[in-house]
């Protein structure tokens, strides 16, 4: 039996990873380090045993050192980050502090305990990053690969790019055994309702407008969080130290296509699921109207990247990764989860 440290494990992707890891590795315990900012939610870990939540800051290097040392932890998976682009535009400082300084704090702690104190045990520091560090693609450009030059365009993506470089430097300079994964747009259970899919799902149910940036034709690769967690697991178990692996869902879709799918699915749900009209009387679908009438076009986000696409050939070839969830399947499961877990998201809206 061993213990793994997961930073940001009470957030969206981190919590899904903790659920996945406990199911796939029942003999391992998990230490979650999370500051419980607005996007961190202890309820995301409800129902799990073998998980210890430590409320703390990744910038507290001494705390991280003590967790690694006292619990004899030799694997760290780093999710903790400020991640919402709009928030990075209105307030960049928090992104630099958490994503850059916080990652550096973790690296310093790992170096001290795993290398400086000479434990001699194999270890792994896995850093979870984003495809946004690569910048924006044109319509005919090839998908991002691990050798695509970095060209971040928002304070968020710039802060993640900086943290990626720090992880690389600690491997090449100090010999820390690191890996990095760059993922595409995640969706699924426990996603905080500031991101497109949960925000628009809830707005559809509550009859609020669906604000669409620009012309709605910005393209993203959509990755179900379950597939992302499996990809990270493969990198932890089989990935080569010092390497970077891109993880995508193989579903490159314009935002408008995703929004139309949300509206159509909600319309169908109100026909097929008994009692939805009574639960959500403000939804257009409750009175037989089309959910799509909530769509509203708003001024585009500053510096909005036009297209992201992920080339997963490296992780597929070297580690055997393949996404299991098509967007249609993954989104249907996500909608069902949000309908079944109204108490979870209503509690967030009332904070």
TrEMBL record:
<dbReference type="InterPro" id="IPR020904">
    <property type="entry name" value="Sc_DH/Rdtase_CS"/>
</dbReference>
<dbReference type="InterPro" id="IPR016040">
    <property type="entry name" value="NAD(P)-bd_dom"/>
</dbReference>
<protein>
    <recommendedName>
        <fullName>dTDP-glucose 4,6-dehydratase</fullName>
        <ecNumber>4.2.1.46</ecNumber>
    </recommendedName>
</protein>
<keyword id="KW-0520">NAD</keyword>
<dbReference type="Pfam" id="PF16363">
    <property type="entry name" value="GDP_Man_Dehyd"/>
</dbReference>
<dbReference type="GO" id="GO:0009225">
    <property type="term" value="P:nucleotide-sugar metabolic process"/>
</dbReference>
<keyword id="KW-0456">Lyase</keyword>
<comment type="similarity">
    <text>Belongs to the NAD(P)-dependent epimerase/dehydratase family. dTDP-glucose dehydratase subfamily.</text>
</comment>
<dbReference type="InterPro" id="IPR036291">
    <property type="entry name" value="NAD(P)-bd_dom_sf"/>
</dbReference>
<feature type="domain" description="NAD(P)-binding">
    <location>
        <begin position="5"/>
        <end position="332"/>
    </location>
</feature>
<dbReference type="GO" id="GO:0008460">
    <property type="term" value="F:dTDP-glucose 4,6-dehydratase activity"/>
</dbReference>
<dbReference type="InterPro" id="IPR005888">
    <property type="entry name" value="dTDP_Gluc_deHydtase"/>
</dbReference>
């Amino acid at each position: 039996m061993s213990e793994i440290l997961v930073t940001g494990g009470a957030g969206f992707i981190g919590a899904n990873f903790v659920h996945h890891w406990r199911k796939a590795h029942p003999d391992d315990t998990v230490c979650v380090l999370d500051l419980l900012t607005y996007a961190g939610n202890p309820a995301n870990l409800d129902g799990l045993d073998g998980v210890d939540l430590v409320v703390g800051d990744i910038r507290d290097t001494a705390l991280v050192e003590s967790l690694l040392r006292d619990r004899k932890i030799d694997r760290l998976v780093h999710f903790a980050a400020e991640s919402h682009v709009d928030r990075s535009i209105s307030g960049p400082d928090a992104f630099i502090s958490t994503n850059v300084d916080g990652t550096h704090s973790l690296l310093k702690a790992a170096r001290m305990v795993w290398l400086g104190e000479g434990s001699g045990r194999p270890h792994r520091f896995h850093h979870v990053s984003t495809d946004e560090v690569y910048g924006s693609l044109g319509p005919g450009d090839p998908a991002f690969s691990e050798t695509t030059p970095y060209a971040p365009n928002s304070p968020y993506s710039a802060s993640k790019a900086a943290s990626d470089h720090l992880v690389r430097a600690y491997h090449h300079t100090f010999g820390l055994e690191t890996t990095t994964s760059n993922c595409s747009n995640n969706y699924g259970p426990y996603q905080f309702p500031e991101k497109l899919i949960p925000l628009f799902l809830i707005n559809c149910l509550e009859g609020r407008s669906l604000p669409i940036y620009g012309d709605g034709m910005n393209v993203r690769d959509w990755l179900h969080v379950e597939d992302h967690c499996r990809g990270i697991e493969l990198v932890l178990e089989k990935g080569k130290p010092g390497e970077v692996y891109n993880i995508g869902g193989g579903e490159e879709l314009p935002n408008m296509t995703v929004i139309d799918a949300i509206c159509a699915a909600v319309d169908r749900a109100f026909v097929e699921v008994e009692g939805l009209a009574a639960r959500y009387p403000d939804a257009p679908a409750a009175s037989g109207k089309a959910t799509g009438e909530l769509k509203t076009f708003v001024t585009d986000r500053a510096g909005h990247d036009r297209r992201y696409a992920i080339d997963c050939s490296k992780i597929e070839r070297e580690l055997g990764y393949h996404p299991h969830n098509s967007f249609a399947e993954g989104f249907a499961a996500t909608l069902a989860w949000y309908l079944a877990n109204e108490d979870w998201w209503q509690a967030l809206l009332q904070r």
